[in-house]
User: What shape does this take?
Amino acid sequence: MNAAGRAGDATAGAQTVDEYLRVWSRVDTDQDAWVVTSPDGGVAGYGHVVAEPHENRVHVDAYTHPAHQGAGIGTLLLERAEERAAALTAGADGPAHLVNYVYLDGASERLLRARGYRRTRVHQRMAIALDRPPAAPEWADGVTLRPCTGSAEELRAVHACVEDAFGDRWGRTPRPYEEWADDLLYDGFDPSLWLLAERSGHLAGAALCRFRDVEGRSAGEVGQLAVGREHRRLGIGRALLLSAFALFAERGAVSVGLDVDSESPTGAHLLYARAGMSVTVSIGQFERELPTGVRAEE
Assistant: This one.
């Protein structure tokens, strides 16, 4: 059913089997996950929910195998997810919001709208092919670039920078260091792919990058690009992005991708477009309000 889903900020960016396994390790598979099997024993669909109790939000993550679309699997999974979401939020103060992410203008969007969901945001997948040398970054006076050392102290400084930079992002809530680190620091973490911009001895911005596989080819991923609010309008974001392009090109990546809010209050989507990136996929964020204590049965 879904084009993309989220468990916190993790699932939407998951690309490899190991990354999906890390996400699922946090799911109560006995109660919060479901698998639909086909007559031949294959997986026809699956879904799970992840609650954010402090926000009264439940993220629904469900998929139907393309070979089994039109069989009602998406509806079944969504019904189960809604019922479970009602149970998870029963007794909480205020209404709960069920959140789902799907490709726009398709069967999944029609299903959600029919069940009372409304689109609250559009997120875009943007990418650039590294088939030519990227433009050279230009740094403002007093700003320097270096890779992350990976030390505990520096990682906390990076986290603080990211939290400051994303503080005015739509729908953003503060993320404790432990939660942020659990999403980003795992086996295979390479601090040399995290680029840090310093200004007058202070961390001004960061590009948190990693490699991923796209159809058997090496591609770069800019997981987070952050510039501290007091360091904006100095071209640091663009310089970090171009530096990431150069880093990936040197290491043999064929392309670089990232995800962005199409209505970013900082204009990040416009910055990426000016740097040569183009939209490859648009994903709608859909939400439905579910009053606590009321079961979502249609």
